[in-house]
């Protein structure tokens, strides 16, 4: 056994590396266990605290581990034994709490069903929707604690009330944002200086603090989610190749007993195999392209990019004319016509955002990308369309906002965009998707049914709708503080609407795409929407003075004057500290601290990269050792079969005393077996 161990590829490689370092005059070794002997003890301690039932070993090894732990418990002291038991109990309690919290997550069973029937791509959309719901719930808590509750408690004008109805109010005010809604806490004009009017604790300061807290909290959460997703995608990037044999032979869970769960698990494996085969097929087709085919493909992609730019320019012109038409003064028109003119920019933006992404999807199909790249290209073009169209609309809106209490007017526009986005989703589901599904099922042989075909859940367009809706919420947050509450209710309704659409009206797609990179792109687009909202809100607050007829900032030259008044009322040391933190002198220490932190993270990244490469080498060596031992075992079995074959018997001179002759090749076989163990390059005798 010692000789075979010395002949293992890992032992030979370790000895070669050791000789190499010794020739260089160092005693460093490349083996992680020899270089870091403490790792073995740490791994052993971690295995000691791990529950026996979760150890990845057979039952006999688990029994041996249990006996070993009992022996260690008797050998160590009572205090050490008690500490180990408490550590194990705390870990098990933490695992049980995590499992219970995972079961308490809303819509877990629904997401499990959707993943089994439609793949991880469709599930990624619903996970993204649930994440936005959590984010808006958190924003509601911040807005409620900093703006709504202080306004309700310290309201100096108690006769105002939260909702005041007058004689000329109508149902259309709910859709337009006028009438009773304009006099409610939904919009900016409702809030004013109340009895809470201290120097560092007043309604304007709380209003500004709530808005900044919401934006900073959103930025932290979105950036964290994006970075974590990117790290996961980088780890499972091009260097990670899934093997078909692993999915076929090791992908099944033999603890499944429910037939429905078994069907879902089978669908998981089928969808992953579809995805793998689709990627392999595209890579093979891409490898067979010639230089002429590449040149033709790049010229075609250039023309299609030019077509995309032309379509985007036409959409922006259409939004401009719709905005100008809605702002024109018209008298004597009917009520429905006035409502249509009020909603003309949202209608045009919704129609443009509905039709052009479908055009982009067909354009990307001619560019001959992989399916995942096609989805990502459509996402990038569509999100640029949505954010740019919203930005153009805001620019034209700011350009013409010279009215009294212009903050309320801007809040109304954001409110109308949010409401009309939900109405478009509702009408598209119940007046287009369901009738189409009913017609295809009822008349499957008609030419119209064959032309429309079965419906698939288009992930890019639905994700873009969520990003657009959340961006509108961030942009209008300062002028319509109740938008996070409206967005929360809307997201809950959208989840159930989309759930019915997927499970009742859609069929699984024949081509799958990897959802890990697209999920990162979802959050990156959400980050772009947040950056656009911050830039829009900051430039608006800096450029325009607060309205002198409504709002909590009446009488202030800028919104940020309330912070200067608060700072001036503080003691001298506090004023000096705050002014230093907001001055240019603080920038240099901040940059130095960031450099130190980034350097430490970069050093840690390099160390982790070296450890990963070392572990990869260990896995390769382990595989080589297995192949070597299997080869040796096969050769040994062949020699034993030749050596211990039944020998012939020869009768002696006397009856009843047979003599057995030894096979002369047996000794040769044994000698060759020993020689092969000593020198694996030697050819065995008799083979």
TrEMBL record:
TMC domain ranges (all copies): 405-516
Polar residues composition-biased segments: 650-662
Family in the record: Belongs to the TMC family.
Gene Ontology MF term list: mechanosensitive monoatomic ion channel activity
TM ranges: 131-154, 204-223, 303-323, 335-359, 379-398, 419-437, 520-539, 580-601
GO cellular component, one term: plasma membrane
Span list, region Disordered: 641-687
Its membrane topology: Multi-pass membrane protein
Name assigned to this protein: Transmembrane channel-like protein
Keyword Transmembrane helix in annotation: yes
């Amino acid at each position: 056994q010692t000789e075979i161990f010395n002949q293992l590829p890992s032992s030979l490689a370790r000895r070669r590396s050791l000789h190499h370092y010794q020739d260089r005059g160092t005693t460093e070794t490349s083996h992680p266990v020899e270089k870091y002997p403490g790792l073995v003890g740490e791994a052993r301690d971690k295995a000691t605290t791990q529950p026996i039932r979760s150890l990845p070993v057979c039952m006999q090894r688990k029994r041996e581990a249990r006996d070993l732990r009992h022996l260690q418990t008797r050998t160590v002291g009572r205090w050490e034994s008690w500490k180990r038991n408490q550590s194990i109990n705390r870990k098990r309690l933490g695992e049980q709490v995590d499992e219970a919290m995972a079961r308490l997550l809303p819509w877990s069973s629904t997401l499990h069903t959707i993943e089994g029937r439609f793949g991880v791509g469709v599930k990624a959309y619903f996970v993204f929707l649930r994440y936005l719901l959590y984010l808006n719930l958190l924003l509601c808590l911040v807005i409620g604690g900093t703006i709504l509750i202080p306004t309700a408690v310290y309201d100096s004008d108690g006769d105002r009330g939260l909702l005041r109805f007058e004689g000329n109010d109508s149902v259309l005010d709910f859709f337009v944002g006028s009438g009773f809604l304009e006099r409610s806490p939904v919009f900016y004009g409702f809030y004013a200086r109340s009895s809470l009017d201290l120097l560092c604790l007043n309604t304007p300061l709380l209003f500004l603090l709530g808005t900044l807290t919401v934006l900073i909290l959103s930025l932290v959460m979105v950036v964290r989610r994006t970075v974590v997703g990117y790290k996961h995608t980088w780890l499972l990037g091009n260097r990670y190749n899934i093997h078909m044999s692993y999915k076929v032979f090791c992908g099944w869970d033999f603890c499944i007993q429910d037939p429905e769960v078994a069907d879902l698990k089978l669908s998981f494996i089928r969808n992953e195999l579809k995805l793998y085969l689709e990627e392999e097929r595209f890579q093979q087709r891409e490898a067979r392209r010639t230089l002429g085919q590449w040149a033709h493909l790049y010229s075609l992609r250039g023309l299609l990019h030019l077509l995309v730019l032309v379509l985007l320019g036409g959409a922006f012109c259409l939004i401009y004319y719709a905005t100008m038409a809605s702002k024109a003064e018209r008298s004597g028109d009917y009520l429905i016509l006035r409502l249509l003119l009020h909603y003309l920019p949202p209608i045009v933006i919704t129609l443009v955002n509905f039709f052009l992404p479908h055009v982009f999807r067909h354009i990307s199909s001619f560019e001959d990308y992989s399916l995942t790249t096609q989805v990502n290209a459509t996402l990038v073009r569509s999100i640029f369309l949505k954010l740019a169209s919203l930005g153009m609309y805001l620019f034209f809106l700011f350009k013409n906002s010279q009215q009294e209490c212009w903050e309320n007017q801007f809040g109304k526009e954001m409110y109308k965009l949010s409401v009309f986005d939900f109405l478009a989703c509702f009408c598209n589901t119940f007046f287009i998707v369901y009738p189409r599904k009913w017609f295809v099922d009822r008349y499957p042989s008609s030419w119209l049914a064959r032309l429309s075909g079965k419906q698939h859940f288009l992930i890019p367009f639905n994700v873009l709708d969520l990003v657009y809706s959340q961006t509108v919420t961030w942009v209008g947050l300062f002028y319509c503080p109740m938008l996070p509450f409206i967005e929360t209710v809307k997201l809950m309704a959208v989840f159930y609407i989309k759930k019915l659409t997927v499970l009742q009206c859609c069929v699984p797609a024949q081509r799958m795409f990897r959802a890990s990179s697209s999920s990162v792109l979802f959050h990156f687009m959400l980050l772009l929407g947040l950056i656009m909202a911050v830039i829009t809100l900051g430039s608006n607050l800096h450029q325009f003075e607060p309205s002198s007829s409504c709002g909590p900032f009446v009488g202030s030259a800028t919104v940020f004057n309330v912070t200067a008044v608060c700072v001036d009322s503080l003691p001298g040391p506090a004023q000096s500290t705050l002014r230093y933190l907001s001055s240019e002198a603080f920038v240099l220490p901040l940059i130095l601290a960031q450099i130190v932190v980034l350097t430490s993270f970069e050093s840690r990244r390099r160390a982790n990269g070296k450890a990963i490469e070392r572990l990869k080498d260990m896995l390769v060596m382990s595989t080589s050792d297995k192949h070597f031992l299997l080869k040796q075992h096969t050769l040994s079995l062949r020699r034993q079969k030749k050596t211990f074959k039944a020998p012939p018997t020869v009768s002696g001179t006397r009856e009843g005393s047979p003599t057995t002759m030894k096979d002369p090749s047996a000794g040769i076989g044994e000698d060759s077996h020993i020689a092969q163990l000593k020198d694996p390059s030697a050819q065995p005798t008799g083979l």
